[in-house]
Amino acid sequence: MRPPLTGRRWLVIVAALGVMIAASTGLAGCASANDGGVKIALLLPDSKTARYAAFDRPFFEQRIAELGNYDVLYSNADQDAAAQQSQAESALASGAKVLVLDPVDSAAAASIVAAANAQGVPVIAYDRLITGGQLAFYVSFDNEKVGSLQGEALIEKLTKDGARGGILMVNGSPTDNNAAQFKQGALASISGSAFPVLAEFDTPDWSPDKAQEWVAGQITQYDGQIAAVYAANDGIAGGAIAALRAADVSPLPIVTGQDAELAGIQRIVSGDQYMTVFKPIRDEAGLAAEIAVKLVKGQPVTGKTTIGGVPTTLFDPVAVTIDNIMGTVVSGGSYTVAQICTAEYAAACAAAGIR
User: Fold this and answer.
1) Are residues 109 and 193 in the same domain?
2) I want to staple 172 with a disulfide (CB 3.0 to 4.6 A). Which of 121, 129, 137, 232 is the partner?
3) On the CB side of 326, how many CA atoms lie within 13 Å of its CA?
4) What is the 8-class DSSP label of residue 252?
């Protein structure tokens, strides 16, 4: 039989319970404090463009992890503006303190900016400028220069080869503000040259399939007249080249590209694509991460310039041809020689001195 509980024994038990409760409370407080960091949302526009999964997301998340205890809420809209709106709303509801937004539709995204601002959440326009709303920062590349590099490379090559004929312009998505700047820069280089624009197409959703379909129709209409294809990015270039191959066009016209995707680099090695544009995405994503953390901390942010009153930093793009693959995408850490020069491309790599 247990001895009766005396007053002294009651005091001991109560004290012990108090210690246990205090310890439990203290542990719960520690768990709460360490249950994830401050939330920063990264909202990217599509998965058809390889760079977003291959570079933008991992570079951004890596830099964020280096900067402290922050959680990245990642979403990809798969070229659906309504889905991106829902993803942004979900991020805000989940407590995101900053939105890093690469918009599907540059104009429609203004409503996302307005919703974020209403909650006191700053928005960084990433890669594509959002046309409307109060932005905290804009980071991208000199997009008109991207188009200029494409157009200049195309005209120089056609002139050097003594080519005759015209150019098909396969532009980017009509909802992407950058696409208009690429086109503007390219036309500045092409206009006044000996190579007229035969026809042009704004590619919905940057879709390679839609680019391929359109180019296939133009091959029939302009049989024997196509000297070059201005393709706004490497995905579109791939679609255009597929159409040209399917129609047995030989020799292939000069084809441009952008983003230095692995498939695009390999097409340059094989001779199917003439050039692409390398953009230092690690720098862009890293700066976006740094600015996001500053905004979380309430620190002031400044850019190298301003656009529409928004602090802005634009990085410089670089044209890539077979002659400088080693000095751009390889030295820049985008790909290794082994990744580029698989068995299918080994002979072409050796011939080009890529080793």
Assistant:
1) no
2) 232
3) 7
4) P
Closest Cα partner for 230 from 265, 261, 191? 191
Both 203 and 286 in a single domain?
Answer: no
List pLDDT tens digits, range 257-282.
999 999 999 999 999 999 999 999 99
d(CA 110, CA 132): 5
User: How many domains would you assign to the chain?
Assistant: 2
CA 210, distance to chain mean position in Å, is: 20
Tokens standing for residue 93: 């509801």
Scanning the chain, the segments in alpha helix (DSSP H) are: 7-33, 51, 57-67, 81-93, 110-118, 143-161, 177-190, 208-221, 234-246, 262-270, 281-296, 337-340, 346-352
Same domain, 336 and 227: yes
In a domain, 6, yes or no: no
In a domain, 333, yes or no: yes
- Asked if residue 84 lies in contact with residue 109, where contact means CB atoms within 8 angstroms, the answer is yes
CB proximity list for 333: less than 8 A, separation 6 or greater: 282
Distance of CA 287 to the CA centre of its chain: 13
CA angle 180, 186, 187 (to 5 degrees): 90
Q: 208 and 271: one domain? A: yes
For the stretch 130-165, pLDDT in tens is 998 899 999 999 999 999 999 999 999 999 999 999
Same-domain pairing of 187 and 309: no
Same domain, 136 and 196: no
CA distance 112 to 92: 10
Q: How many helices (H) and strands (E) does the chain have?
A: 13, 13
Q: Which residues span the domain enclosing 203?
A: 143-278+318-352
Distance CA 99, CA 139 (A): 13
CA neighbor of 99 nearest in space, from 54, 48, 133 = 133
Residue 3 lies in a domain: no
- CA geometry: angle at 38 spanning 289 and 114, to 5°? 70
